[in-house]
Each structure stands twice: as structure tokens, then as C-alpha cells.
């Protein structure tokens, strides 16, 4: 393994050991809470679309809204400052504090303040800065960085926090329980807030019409921070501005549910500073509030720091819609196992973190963790503003690729007929051109090991391509699905429909049996089947960030299928990741009309069987069962498309007793689990699925899974055979 | 306000483990005495003919805030779906009084309970456009899970009680 890969693997290994359990317990809890909490909404999807539309409009009209906001803030008696970058913002904030002769600033939690590193700047000017959010305070005491954008100390267990407090503060009685730790922090921080000169908060949203900011919190520290001192500085990105107070409503309903799985957080502070509430001057503890001379000062510091460039960037713009709820972190299988210290950059972490880091810090910071997004797409339905987070990660990967230089291109020469300029890593080029490798693999199979056939040993593959030697390589079949199909004649009289079975690269070269099973199943249900010679979908290069190559595939695939579509044939796809290309990603590559045509007639194979059975096809033509137990793992992208239920329904209809896994992803995720730097993480993620399928209730069930990757992962984790569900239901010959 | 909305509000409070009591203006003093313990601070209620009892300190100092067991304030709105009360910051100190005590007692008129967030934000939009500067949508007590388990009472009240004023 190369030194860089070994170093990355070592870092991931260390974080899985030290922080993985604590991060995993909390994020899985948040994620489960989200599924439950959003069910309380009458129209969750509608609310997300509403939130999305508000953000789209706000970013579109941002300069105009900022002008309006400046007027409202100033007429309210506050000041609005637009800071170009971190240094500009810090200088302004420092000057405000110095003007007040402030000795102590108390802060409520703000990721944007982490981005500009305002604490360090103020401390350098001898101003004491105190984080009052309990999680942030723990990190300040421990001198660590956040591992999660909402729950920053999520990587620390209660025991670790107790040790930290007991060592640092040496309380009379050692602290132990969460209750004791919380009350100790409340007391300590309460005193620090009482003597503070300036209160600094973030802002989750700011309305241009009234200058009202919304703070989403649960502890009450933001309320105290805003009300006790007479000076309030709020720091937020420019993207937080929305038009009106009423526009807050969908966000208020969505943010807690999406993030920590709470219906709503304890406090949504809606403040139009300077507020009318009296200041609380603990230096004059016996003067009634009614006699306090309240003269409040308010500074809203809106930070550009790359955001206006992001707004002009057609690919990164969506990032600005992000409301920092953390749903994309919590739902992410990889994040659940390593947390933000691996799956994060300078400031931001999780799926959308790549977009933020690329926009505000630069590609280098984004490149550090971008590969941890496998494109499983589970975050896309979790995101309350419908951001296509995997696409942002793909775009960033593409840009990172284009910045890399490689001198070893000869290793994959002839295997990489891609559209990419030099610079894509060998590993990515190899996996991105998997179709070519598969063709070579089938050519050599089974005469010799395909890798040997390529003249490349596993050792060399590991050293230069980063393909982990601990992974079994796919066994390519000599006879491809297309070969097999060409050598037989179709046997359907009076077909009810004609379907094109898309020969995805895995079905054609590796999982050939599931292809044959699909043909037999469709024919048994009265469907005439065609297996055309069409190029691979482009999923493989897309997942490596090779967008130009993927787009080239999309054009060829559409050209290869267009006449079939014109002729009224249905497109049936076995591999869910390829179906997701047709139904989702092709929207980025094809003319609108072409995308509509292909996406509307493309079906996942079990979805198609479900439709045929619903329309009267004879289920008895298939392999029925009298209660055989089946353990089913759907595919991440299939679930995102809402197609898990079709397989379950077909299997149940045919008499199988189905138990479905509830992990977000199997951990294999295409090429991810083959890469030596990620192999161990992939296995760690897979261990959850392994545990579910080896449980007492499931260990005797027949294992079926929809995706090639899932099957490969399950094959390596379980000692019993696996198959695609279509193989279970196909008629016995 | 329809009985259905009030019932939904009560169900939500139940879910949040927030206590509530119905009271007529005449019963208010007794109800408050039942839920508060000394020292109790408060802010006079903006409802005609409804006064806080004499034992409530309505002119607190910072030291009183620090020592308060209970803080009584009006709530401008109740939101049935969520069990939330809207606490409006005013010059007479609703925000600190509702925030510093271990118990916050929110006194809410039955007619000010709305079904959900759409109605609440219609109301809030008007409030902010007509000059109100602060409203906290408060749902249950303050809470944190930052110390490894959910704890009620982080920086704010550990407990909330809602008195629904039946007119």
C-alpha cells in the first residue's frame, strides 16, 4: 500500500477505535429519530419543497435582500457589516469588543464562528472567549475540534467528559453522571455569562423584512448570551438571509426533525435586535431590572468568505441552501463509523461538508475527505432542502481529479479509454473504466486469474492501484449475458409487452446468472425480452468523479436505447445503481426530453415484476414458496428511489417470509470497499448488516440482495450463499 | 378556540412531560401557589383584571433572578401541534424572568392557542412587523444531550408548567 494510503487507513482505523462507538450511537439515534419525527408531519415532502423554493429564491435575490436587510437592521437601531473574509470579520468583531473595553465574550454555538476562527483572534487581543454551549465548552476545555456540526462533542463519551472535568477542575466530589456534569457546567458557565461584556451568537436564519434572526437551540445559553450583556454580535454567512418572517415556518418545522430527530428544539429564539428586554447587570445585583438603563448595541456581521463565488458557481450554488441540520451526517453509514474528524475538513463535516469546504476553504480541504462519500444517496431524501449532496461530492471530486498529476498512467494504459485529462489518480481511472477491465476479465476467464491475465499481480495492484489485497476480486464469467442470450431463441408467443433487459456491466460479465434469471422470469410472465449491445451506464466513472466520461456514456446509452423506447419497449434494469443513473443523474447529462423519455420507461427488475403481477400476470409461473425465510438487503440507491418495497411485495406475494435489513448502506458501495485506504472502514460498516443477518431470527434465512456491491460484501461477511431476488423467483428449469 | 385544538395542545404537553392546569382568573392565585415555591419572581400579566398574587416578586433584581425557584410570565401564544408557548421579550423583563428560574410558569389564555406553525407564523409576522422585538418559541424545559445522556435543565429552566386561563 502506498504511504499516503497507509496513512489514511491508519487515521481512519484510529478514529474507528477511539471515536467510532460514541459517534455511531448518537448519529444512529438522531437518524432513527428523524424517521420517526418526520412522520408527524402531514406533508413532509411538500414542506421540504417549500423550504427548498424559499432558499432558491433567496439566493437568487441575495444582493437585493441584503440591501433590504441593511435598511431594516439600521432602522431597528443595529449595524450590518458585510465581511469579505475571515480576517475582515475578525477585525470588525475585535474592534467592537475593544470599543466596549470588553474583557469577556460569551458565545453560543456557531459553526460560522468556527469557520473564521474568531476565538483565536480575540484571544490574541487578550479578550477572554467562553463557549457556553455545553458541547462546545467541553471541546474548549479539551482543546479539540467539533466532530459534528450540531452536536460538536459527539465523539466524547460521558466517561471521557467526566475524566476531563475531574482532571481540569478538581471538584470536591468527582463528577460522574450526565446530570452531575450538566449541572456543574451550568454553574460554571452561569457565572461566566453573568460577568460577560459581549454576547456572540450565530444565526440560523435572518429575515430581510424585519431584521429578525432565528436561533435554533435547546440549552438556553443562546437566550442568556443575547439577553444578559448589552452588546450582541451575531455572526452568520450571507446565505442565511431569507425574505420574510413567514418564510421561517417550514424551516422551524423541519430543522429539529431533520437534525437530531426532535419534533422541535426547546427554543427557537426569534430576535429583532437590539431587543427591548432589559439587560441583566450582575455587577449591580441589587438594582431592580425596572431601574436598569438599557442601552443595547447590536452588530450583525454577515460573512462572504467565498459564498458570493459559490452563488455564481452552477454546481456549488446548492450548497448555499444548506441549513446545517446535520441530517446528511447522521444518515451516512461512513460518517456513523468515523465522525467528522475523518469525514470533515477545516470546519465543516459530513456529506454537505465537501461543498462548504470547497467553497470557503478551497479544494485542498475538501479533497481530504471527499472520497468518504460513496454516492449511496441516502442523504438526498434526508436533506430538508433537497440538495443533491452526492452530486456536489462528485463535482468536487472531478475538480480535485483535474488538479492531480500522475506519472504512472502506463499502468492502466489501454484500460482507461476515458474522457479525462491527465491528473485523475490511477485508482480512480481504473475503477472509472471498469467496463473495459470487465471485458478483458471475461476474455481471460476462466482460463486464468483475470488480474494475472492483465499482467498485473495483486501486489502491484495494491501498490499502484490501491486495490486492497484482502478483497476477493470479482469472478468474471467467460460467457457474458449477451453471449448467452445471442445463442438462444426467445420463447414467448403473443407477448404482453416487450422489454429491453439492460445488460449492465456487472450482470453481463460477473453476475451473469441473475441476468439469465431475469430473462427467464420475464419470459415466464409473457414478456418478450431483448438484450441489446449497449454501453455501460457511466456509474463507474461518475463515482470516481470522472464526469466528462460519465456524460459520454450517458449519450451513448441513450443513443443505444432510443429506438427501443420509440418502439414502446420498457427498459428493465437489474443493477440499482445503473437504474439510478437513468432516473436521476442522466438529468444532468441529457437534454430534458431525452431524460424524461428514458427515466419514464426504466424499471428496476423486481419493480417490473411487481407491475406485471399487479396487471394480472400468473404468479404461479414463478418459483413460489410456502414460507421460506428470506433475509433481504435492498440497495442504498434503490431505497432512495423508493423501490425497496416492490421486492418485498413480490417475495411476500410468492409466499416467502421476508425480513429486511435496516442499515443505510452495506459499506461496499461499488469500488469503495476495494480501495486499500477504505477497506477496513468498509468492513466495519458492513459488520452492522452482518450482525443483522446472523442474528437468531435471521441466521437460517436465505440471503438476497439487489446490488452487485451488496452481494460482494455479503459474500465476504457471511458464510452462506447470496443471490439476487430475481434468482429466487425465476422459474426452475 | 375549539376544544379539539386545546385537547391537542394538552396531548402535546403530556408528550413533553410538561404539567398544565386550567384556571379561571379567580382560581389563578391558588393554582400558582400550588405549582410555585419561594422565591418566585414574575412579570405582571397583560390580561385585563388578572393580577399576580402579592407573594410574587414582580420587581426582581439580578440577585433575585439568580435565586429564583420559579418565574411566572404571560405567553402570547400556544401552539397545539408542538406544545410550544411563545414567550415575548418585553421591557419589563419577560425574557430573563422566564429563563433564570428552575421552573417557568407560562400563563396562556385559552383563546390564544392555535393549531400549528402556519397560524403561529401568521401571528408572528404581524407581531414583528408591528414592532415587537423578541419572541421565543419555547417547547418544554431547556435540555442537553452533550454530556452523554439527555438532561433536562441546561442553562434554562429545568421544568415548565403551563396555566391555561379559561375566560
Automatic annotation (TrEMBL), chain B:
It holds the Pfam family LUD_dom. InterPro entries: FTHF_cligase-like_sf (IPR024185), LUD_dom (IPR003741), NagB/RpiA_transferase-like (IPR037171). It comes from the Archaea. Residues 65-165 form the LUD domain. This is LUD domain-containing protein. It comes from Haloferax gibbonsii (strain ATCC 33959 / DSM 4427 / JCM 8863 / NBRC 102184 / NCIMB 2188 / Ma 2.38). The lineage of its organism: Archaea, Methanobacteriati, Methanobacteriota, Stenosarchaea group, Halobacteria.
